[in-house]
Structure formats: structure tokens, C-alpha cells
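Reviewer has doubts. Consider these C-alpha cells.
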Amino acid sequence: MAHYQSMGSIPPKRHTQHRRPAGRGKLGELYYEELMGEEGFSSDSSLLYHRNIPSTIVDARVWEMGDLSTTPNHPLKPLHLQPHTLFDDAKTVKKTDVVTGRRLLLGNGDVRISYAVAGATSPWYRNGIGDECVYIERGAARVETVFGAFDVAQGDYIIIPRATTHRWIPRASRKEPLRAYAIEGNSHIAPPKRYLSKYGQLLEHSPYCERDLRMPQGPLLAEDVGDKADAETEVYIKHRGSGPASSGGIVGTVHTLPFHPLDVVGWDGCLYPYVFNVRDYEPITGRVHQPPPAHQVWEGWNFVVCNFVPRKVDYHPLSIPVPYYHSNVDSDEVMFYVEGDYEARKGSGIGQGSMSLHPGGHPHGPQPGASEASIGAEYFDELAVMVDTFRPLDLGEGGLACDDGKYHLSWSGNRGGSAGSGAVHSID
């Protein structure tokens, strides 16, 4: 995100001496400068000033991350996944964290989509493969990072750059545990280029702007969170390695640091985590049905993220507000149905918390009767997060475990399985 920020104590000139306070007439010890940058030295970066040498570790061991294998969607079928069913044991949820408790739903060589319902604090963690975009479906948490902290809650996207050390602390709630939908790229995740000026400013036609982004609260040091600065700490790292081909070669390591990772006294630059709430997204509408790119919010390498928010719909006198049938010639489409009234879609089984996969090579669209039923509608009250990928998605162990097994029959009436529906269904 090329939007300059400065936080905490930094020297007037980069790559120059920055020292700790010391007694009168004495020089304090140097802080240790770390450049966190993208694409070598050729893209956005930030400079962080540490109390400790950031390379220091005293031990390393293997992190066994669980089943990251994937299974092809073959024979080719549209799928209905029900990730809520993966976390229906309250006792288990209390012990589950957002990092180690993720269940892989779908993935390919560019992006992995996971889901977690968590009640426990995560270990310190960084993803050494790519950026993460985590959407908060329900609940709330505090996310502590080396850049500062965030309070996140329902509807928040948090973008966490590659190699950012952080941890998740769910906020206890009797009503809702923390429900997190994690999109892990093998690349960087950022606003679409068409929304940005050549210098990185969000333009007037963008559906959100810099004012809508929440920056970290910081700087954040160990003593600020009630921990000891010299506390030996484990950091879980997800990275590339010689893991099995079925897991994409993804492996994990745990590094032991002789100090607490929250030791950054100041930083500045254009690379940092930030939060955007989906309710601040201004939908783009038109006289006739707008295609999915009108709903885009983020992009990564070979995938995009869109959100469908409550909005007025098509106002041409002969408009059909629901989407036309469309073949995903170049992409697989994943829709996560967060809020809205999907109860009428009894023929498809889709409801709040559902996910659909519409694979490339298969035309999809509204349920039978939905086009006629939508005529005259002026407003759709719905919220969904969509990921489109430009390489086929395989199923992870979580996806296999929560597939309803019959969604592909939902357009065919009673033949072969579940019946169709005449419900209004606006989601693409």
C-alpha cells in the first residue's frame, strides 16, 4: 500500500545512527534497522528499528502444520461447502487458534482459502510465502504485530504483508466466537491497480479511499502488552521447503528467539498491515446488471477478491437484477455467503455461512425461476466475499469434509436430487 506512514521513534535520515537514550554526555546503544521490502529493493518497503538484532534465534524445530494436501475437483462439479460444520464443538473451539487451527478448504499454486473458529490466543506467527487477507465473519479479536496493534471485528478485512510477525487474541464473547476466513496468497495482496494513480493514490472512481483504512496502533512493545522484553519466545513460520507435492511444498518451522518479538520502537514507509471494513465499501451500480469486476476490492497474483454488499440494483425499466448465466472461461469462482436472506433458496441449500465453488468450464447463474422473480426488485440486502482464481482450485481436507455432495444438482429440479428454487438470488 503506497501510502506513507511514520510511527514511533525514527532518525531524521534513513540508514543513519539511531541510538537509545543514555546518560548525559554518553552515547546509547544503536537500534537495529531492518528493511522489510517487496520484490527485492524494487517495490514498497518500510524501515523498522529494533531493540534486538532481528536475525537472532537460539533454536529451530519443525512445525507440523497438519494436512495441507489437496484433491482435484474431478469429475468437474460446482460445490457447496459448509465450513461452519467443521467447528461445531464448543469445547474444541475454545482451544483452537486462528493460526494453527485453520482448515484448508480450497487451494492452488497461487492462493489458499482456509477457515477457522477460534477461542484461543495464537502463537506468534509469520507467513514467509505471501500476504494474508483475513476476513472476520463474526466475533472480535486483537491482532498484535511488530508494526502495532489492531482491534478487529465483524466485517473487517486485515491485510498482513508477508513476513510480518503477529499473533491473534480473540475477544471472549458468549454470543459469537471469532470466525476468520483466511485468504493466503503466494504473492502480495493490494488494491486493484485500476483504482490507483501511477503514484499509488486511490483515485476518485475507487469504491474506497485512504480515509477508510485503519492503521496500526503503535508502536507496540513487550511491556505495553504486559510481557517481559527478555522473554524467550517461539515464532511459527510458514515457508517454502521440500514438503510433499500434494501440499504445494509448504512446510513450517518454529524459531525460538531469546527476546520478545515486540521490540520495534519506530518504523516508517509504505509497507505495513492495515484494516478495511466491508461496510465502508461504496458499491458501483448501473441501469443494468454490473459484472463482478465492479465489486472488486483486492487483487493478488492470479486471483482477485470481490465483495457484494447491500446496494440498490438495476434501474433500467426492463432490467433483470439477478446475474445472467455465465461461463467462467478463465477462472474458478468461490463465494462465501456472509449475511443476507438466502432462506428462499431451499433448492440449492445455500445459506449464511455457505461457500459455493463454480469452476471454470461450467456455466452457472441463478436458480430456476430466480430471473423472473427478481424483476421489479430495487434493493438487495446481502453480503458475500468472492475469490476468483485464474488457475483451477483443488479441495483441501476441510473442503472435502464439508462438501454437501448435491449442490451440482440444484439447477435440475427433482431430477437426481435436490429441487430447484424460484427464489431471488442476486449473487454471481
Q: What stands out?
A: The two ends are 28 Å apart (CA to CA). Residues 281-408 form a domain with the Jelly Rolls fold (CATH 2.60.120.10). Confidence is low (pLDDT under 50) at residues 417-425.
